[in-house]
Amino acid sequence: MISDKHRELGSPLQNTRLPSLLALRCFEAAARLENFTRAAESLHLTHGAVSRAIRLLEDDLGVPLFERRNRRVKLTEAGRSLARAVSQGLALMRESVAELRARSRQPRRWVLSCEPTLLMRWLIPRWPDFQARHPGMEVHLVAGGGPFSFDDGLDLAIRRDDFPWPAGYHAEALFPERVGPVCRPDRFNDWFETTAGGTRLRAGALLLHTRTRPDAWRDWAAGRTALPGSRGQVFDHFYFSLQAAVAGLGVAIGPWQLVRDDLASGVLAAPMGFEPDGSRYVLLSPAAPAPGSPHADLLAWLRLAA
Length: 306
Prior knowledge:
Blueprint: H1 12-16, H2 21-33, H3 36-43, H4 47-61, E1 66-69, E2 72-75, H5 77-103, E3 109-114, H6 116-133, E4 138-143, E5 156-160, E6 170-182, H7 188-191, E7 192-195, E8 198-201, E9 207-210, H8 216-221, E10 232-235, H9 238-246, E11 251-255, H10 256-265, E12 275-285, H11 294-305
Parallel strand pairs: 3-4, 3-5, 9-10, 9-11
Antiparallel strand pairs: 1-2, 5-12, 6-11, 6-12, 7-8
Helix pairs in contact: 2-3, 2-4, 2-5, 3-4, 6-10
């Protein structure tokens, strides 16, 4: 006798059995990002765990979901079909969870992810004002940059639009990115000179670079001025390059929002002003803010603070 725990292959019950939710989440992240490594990072799993989950899913379904080309992956026709269904299913689950949370009588705790340097140098210094204006809204601030998933427990995210995000994400513009050279005021004569054509970098200026924005100086200088030689230092994070400028180690590319407090206090100077670099910061969410909701209140305050 065959029990209900050992069904015949091809039976209706066997064909309607769903794969594990973890396998489907791994597949959805890999399909969305088209990269197993980035999918693993977004889910806080190892590359091997994501790869195994997808391989087991393919074995379970009996069809390949990805074409594997060296380190790149591409969805097959079957993979694209499943990706649409899984994405829609997860979206429905997120909406249902959001509705249930909204009905709860307990105050909701929102989780807001923000790029680390913007969080440290712009958002946190202004956060007491938000708390004073909205004392009943509990928001947990976390640092994070680049691609992410709302399945990771995030409600909202502030990001610069220098990477693609899923089509289902809702984006609200906050402010454009404007950048320019910044240094300590007492080092101006060491690294800048004033001519009839205006202020420019000296040939021996020490430029401070960062691995998180390796092309910042080149993009700023494009069509504007020639850069000095390769003298200078490279830092792992943008925040470090700005602190190095405060310490007088050289000239950094400073986004206005990240250095505006230092400019106001006289710690830094911006001898050549700031220019838009074509990017902007946005508030990302799974759906548009409902009028009068905490989401809408936060968005309005962010724009006011900008």
